[in-house]
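Teaching assistant here, posting this on the class forum so everyone can see the example we discussed in section. The complex has two components, and the goal was to see what a joint structure prediction looks like when all of them are supplied at once.
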Amino acid sequence: MLMSPDILSLPLAEPVKRLPRVIVSPLYDFQVLGGQNFYTGENSSLSMDANGFVAPAIKFNDEWSLLPSFVTAYNGTRQVVDIVGGGTAFQSQWDNEAAVKAIYSPDGSKWRLKPYSDFKYEFLQQSTQEQLGQGLYDYYQWDAGMSAEYVYHDPFSIRFGADYYAVHFPNYTSLESEAATQFQGQSLARELVGNYILDSQNALLTVSADAPVKGKFIVEGQAGLLYANYPQQHLVNESGSLDSPVRTDVTSILGASVKYPHQIESGVREVISFGLNYLYDSSNQNSFDATQSQYIPFFYNYGQLTVTPGFELLVGPDKNPVDWSVSASWWYDRYPHRPIQSADGTYLGQALYTNNWMIQSSLNYPMAPHFSLVFSAQYGRGTSNDRFQQFYQYAFTTGTYMFGVSYDY
Amino acid sequence: MKTDCIPVRCWRRPATRTFIAAGFLAFFCSYARASATISDYFGSVKVLKAGTQNWVRVDQAPAVLGVGDQVSTGFLSRATILFKDGSKVELSGSSSFTLDETKPGISLMSLLLGVLHAEVTHNPARSFEVRTPTTVCAVRGTNFKIRVMAGGMTVVDLYRGLLAVTDHKGQQILLHPNQSTRVGLKGLPRLGALPGRAAARLAAARFHASMKREMNFEISRGQIEAMAERDLRLADYQQGKTLIDVSGHVVRVEQYIMQPSPDQIKMVVLDKRQNSLNYFYYLGTFNTTLPPDISVALRELPGTPDAPPQYYLTGYHSVWSNGTDSLQEITSGGHLVNLNNNSSGDTSEAVTTYFDPLTNSYKTLTSGEAFYSTLFDNEGLYVDGNLKSGWSGSGIETYHSGYGSYSPTLASNTDPITGAALSTSLPGVTSSSTFPDPGQVHQTIYNSYTDGTFLKFDNYIINNQGQVASNSAFGSTSGTEFTQNILNYNFEQVITASEFQGRSIDLVVSPKIFVQAGLIQ
């Protein structure tokens, strides 16, 4: 049965148009929400969140694509996952990030190579007195890196990433350096005091993978190693003075999650998920508590265990379902070298830990293709064995509710 | 239009079908089992074997497919069907597929619903065909995708090779690489229609989905990086480096200890608000060289019971400043005195409780128990560098007047620290202490001078939200119980004076520094 001559002799069908070789496919995602935060009995006023991204992805050919993107997120409402301990004033946060990523998929290969670079600027207003761009913890960072993905069974893959980035806090200089010769020529600063002590140079290595298991589950895993160097932050010694070496942190991250997507009946699907993450930050920086004359070595070291079970129910057509999800998070932080304090500040022997949990639920109700009404609510609690609450309140309850619209394309 | 040798036509011919039917049993055992298998799957994949009524869930791969077997994939599921010649068909979720024929030289299958992606090995001698409710696609070595929607609409995308597409009216077209068409119940589109737009849309959709995936990777990486910056901020909060003052303003606080010389300690507090830097420092000079662990000396600052402390102050210099204005207290001539048995005979300064910095608590002395503390012979209080008040003496045993040489002499015409003669006599002073806000721990100390000037201290006890503590939380506003309670709060001191011309020095500080230095008693 020879087909070749017959097929080739067929007429070219005029109605058929050539698939475009260069494809420009813009991605959009916008969300505008209004809401309110409650913190240990106090209510905030109604405020707004808005976030989204635009990414005009370009496919030049089967091998090369480019993904430029701009992401912006304005949060006027404090979230449960934000830092919520007492004294943590919050007015608004505005993140902006511009990035470009090239994707090279060699013909016939399962590898994808992705060099990228991005620039991020985060504005954080702690109070109304801080103008935009003058926030103490505003920072920007330059980032450049390369990731490689091996798609062994599309869409499942193994991914490797290497990343370098530098962070600068333009408005955060140590007060000590600012006050170096404040009074009658007398020095108020220690020798070796740094200026931009939060600035850092960072290297991040990551590996992650996902895989189907027994035809029912999707398992994902990731590991990361973050090295941070603070060139202007000298080490604090036992007498409270500063030594020449500078602070370096190494953060190790391990995570795994499993998802179980399941069709209950026609048009009704569920996804059950469970995640487990562990993080350990190892820092060589120490602390000297001047008020208590207490030296605390390796003050910043901490481990964090996070557990996140979740459930998602999708009802309706694949492309535009009603999406209801509920999930919980529990995270346990332990600072092995940081002793707890009594209410009056006296140091005790036990290592400090914090226990936090949060439950959240969200409902996306489609109103039109890509367009949904959104309602979400979060409730969280925090506890700790530390009784010293002069600076930071470890025990709290907090909640947030938000509602609005989203557009996703 | 040539049609007689299009493979699908051959297969549809009754003679051909008869031939297949006649040879089915003969060839089945030897070819079918080995010719097609479900080589991989994910999720819910079911097979209805030919001649049976029950769908059986696939629970292991490879699973053999025979002629007439049907395959159904569930939501988010997928199945890969591998043919003996290496050709591969991948079924996406919610697809319905039938293997119509498979033997050397021919592979025929049907897709009723869903998405099928085929990677067909090149073999000129073999026919590979996919039927849908509205089309028949005949190929050789090629890579294509077919999507069948509800209602039978079929979309065909061709990536490599050649693909003949025939609709139910017998109309045929030939797709070349990177071409696409869609076929509905009305057959192939008429000339002038634009099915390519749909093809472009499909290609864009695939690309779109892959780019969304990339965006998710980006967001995931960004979360790790943002976490590190968040931790820096959290540590600042936990160490009290960012607080809220009584006016609701965010104030940065840094407190640290310096050792300018072997016998000195300088405790520094820096407070910064939006546009102002206020600071306090306490420079203490001790009687001897300090130990490496300076906390040993600091613990002895308030005095010691029973035996004289090893380390005591011979003088100190306290400074409050906003960068423009300043308040200074300077002392010298520090020496130890047993306050419970001093030589002056004054018992009004006897000590019954004392502050223990090690435990942050007040301890009670037994009756007659000695308590050694430092008294300073000379003291000067300066506002913006000008002496406001002071005293001088030599080996004083009490701060109270009336005990002869054991008492200090109030400064009048001479600076007690520098010894310089003053051009005008120092004014007299009267002091008052009030709590102007009912129910709140807000103390005002007002010093009124006879020259018409004033010096005022507003002391607030505030929590970490900048809220002033209530009296009910304290029980009393003086004594050791009061001071003990203060240690659970932050202390904010606002200093104003005539000389400051409306400016103020505003400091939020951990109260222990003031308690330890004897500035809060």
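For the discussion questions: Chain B has two domains: 7-193, 242-516. Chain B touches chain A through 134 residues (CB under 8 Å). Think about how each of these relates to the inputs above.
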